[in-house]
Design brief:
Double Stranded RNA Binding Domain, 3-stranded antiparallel sheet, mainly alpha, 3 strands, 239 residues, 2 domains, Ribonuclease iii, N-terminal Endonuclease Domain, Chain A
Length: 239
């Protein structure tokens, strides 16, 4: 158990929870609980931790993008890969007939370990473990979010909305040539929707497009809420 704790970077206060997490259903020990219930709980804890992380990663990630990011992190392949990288298979007790441990069993073992840490140390401990186990996949999702091409997204929205391309204008360029800062505004469908600045025109345009998308999203939400209020006001009480 000391070795498992060293690999996980966590010391259990109640080691019996960890022992249950390491006991696969194929072992069939009389009176001993398998890790199936922990696997069920661990799946939920993992989903919560990753969803929470994605929600705080980038405010402009929409529901679809967060769903895809979560799927990348919590899929069986990602969990099994983490188990293989850390050599966790040697800690899982399985039945004699299981010569090779399938990917789904490894993934379930990781979920059971997450649940064990959650029950023993709480949500903060589980967060730390998930980061330790899935750091590579979380980093990949973060890189995808940070490299988002806001100009392309804004162009796509503009073409769908008014069949016209966004127009970018440099409104100021300050500082010496080697430290110049550009400020750019972007007009979408006849309205200036965003401004941004950067060390290059391209960087400033990306910042302006990002602000424009944020403005458009906020505007759409306000219109939707106004429509709901209007519809609610027109509804008569039939009771």
């Amino acid at each position: 158990m000391d070795e498992l704790e060293a690999v996980l970077g966590y010391r259990f206060r109640k080691r019996e929870i960890a022992e249950t997490a390491c006991r696969h259903a194929s072992l069939r020990l009389s009176g001993a609980e398998s890790n199936e219930r922990l696997e069920f709980l661990g799946d939920a804890v993992l989903g919560l931790v990753v969803a929470e992380w994605l929600y705080g990663l980038e405010p402009r990630l929409d529901e679809g993008e967060m769903t895809r990011g979560r799927a990348l992190c919590v899929c069986g392949g990602a969990l099994a890969e983490s188990a293989r990288r850390l050599g966790l298979a040697r800690f899982l007790r399985v039945g004699k007939n299981m010569n090779e441990i399938p990917e789904r069993v490894l993934a379930g073992f990781v979920e059971a370990l997450i649940a064990a840490v959650y029950l023993d140390g709480g949500l903060d401990a589980a967060r730390t473990l998930v980061t330790h186990l899935l750091g590579q996949h979380l980093t990949q999702v973060a890189q995808q979010a940070n490299s988002k091409d806001y100009k392309s997204l804004l162009q796509e929205w503009s073409l769908k909305s008014c069949a016209a391309l966004p127009t970018y204008r440099v409104i100021s360029a300050q500082g010496p040539p080697h430290r110049r800062v550009y400020q750019v505004e972007v007009e979408v469908c006849g309205e200036v929707c965003g401004k941004g600045e950067g060390r290059s025109k391209k960087e400033a345009e990306q910042a302006a497009a990002q602000q424009a998308l944020s403005h458009i999203t906020t505007q759409k939400k306000e219109q939707k809420n106004a429509h709901k209020r209007s519809a609610g006001g027109d509804t008569q009480n039939i009771y």
